[in-house]
């Protein structure tokens, strides 16, 4: 234990703040993978969760209404936990003394919550990277003029603004905020871990008619486009009557309220899955659908691509960065039910196209979005921040000297 503590003290210290487990969803999965990766060999990573207990199944967990949409009791519990996190944060800074604070945020309430952490870092004089797990353009455009000015004021307090959609850097210039330092840091997935969960190789998928369409929801299935998919099912069923739709982490009452009762038998409706159970669903499916109306860079799409699935998704936010139309999948406008049905039917009717897109997607994830590439990107971000701060330079020089000495005397 003593040796481990001494080794930790030799590495530049980074406090990583975000919604970590037991929080659920793509960002929590992504952060957990990075924190458990080889990045910890070069930096002393300390997680600081600002997550709250998972909510019961809700239809819409997006926007400012999320504070009270799970009931008054849940609202007061969330407020109490948030206040506890905020009060303990300065103590964590004093005890850990990080060279960098990396804050992961989301739009609406979470953004304003993390703005307080940003202000505390500014008071302590600690470099701060703020990473938004959503399209900044979509979030900013949804704000009132007053809130837009406040958003930009928050961004001017941080050292660097980390975006996961390439268009956001151009958008900041368009709105006259080009002087805010930004960097692009795409999400990643643990491809090796996913393949190990599925037997080590990509599955040999069926070329028959009994095909399965997979949709992964969560606590915000409306934003992710579940109603659009449900409206498209009758048209798909007329042409491909044997197709099954696996709807994971979706509320049953929402499905029953939209989908005609004669089509309910075509759907397998399940609760939340993770880890090996999620990998098994990806292995079983023939194509993955996410007709979302607003996103950042969905981890679910990267996981589906890594599993060799062709993608049908909307051309919003960071999705076109991952999925090239007619290459790894088919992209449609958000809210276009007819285009959604046609894209799904096109893939259902062409096993050659499904397999070609799935293969290209798997290759692209390995080349650009695998966990080792993500670790390289995080390390590059941290070293650039350390070079711009005196305390960070001291930690970086100390770590480099110790590494050189160890190498020389081995």
Q: In words, what does this structure look like?
A:
The protein has 410 residues and is α/β, with parallel strands linked by helices. It has 2 domains: 227 residues, 3-Layer(aba) Sandwich (Rossmann fold), CATH 3.40.50; 179 residues, Rossmann fold (3-Layer(aba) Sandwich), CATH 3.40.50.2000. The chain is built from 17 helices and 12 strands. The chain is globular.
CATH superfamily of the largest domain: Glycogen Phosphorylase B
Shape: globular
Name of the level-1 CATH class of the largest domain: Alpha Beta
* Topology order in helix (H) and strand (E) letters: HEHEHEHEHHEHEHEHEHEHEHEHEHHHH
Assigned CATH architecture of the largest domain = 3-Layer(aba) Sandwich
- In what range is the share of β-strand residues? 5-15%
**In CATH terms, what is the fold-level topology of the largest domain?**
Rossmann fold
Number of strands: 12
The number of domains: 2
Number of helices: 17
- The parts where pLDDT drops under 50 for at least 5 residues are 1-6, 401-410
Largest beta-sheet characterization: 6 strands, parallel
Rg to the nearest angstrom?
22 Å
The proportion of residues forming helix, as a percent range, comes to 40-55%
Q: Which features characterize this protein?
A:
Rossmann fold, 410 residues, six-stranded parallel β-sheet, 17 helices
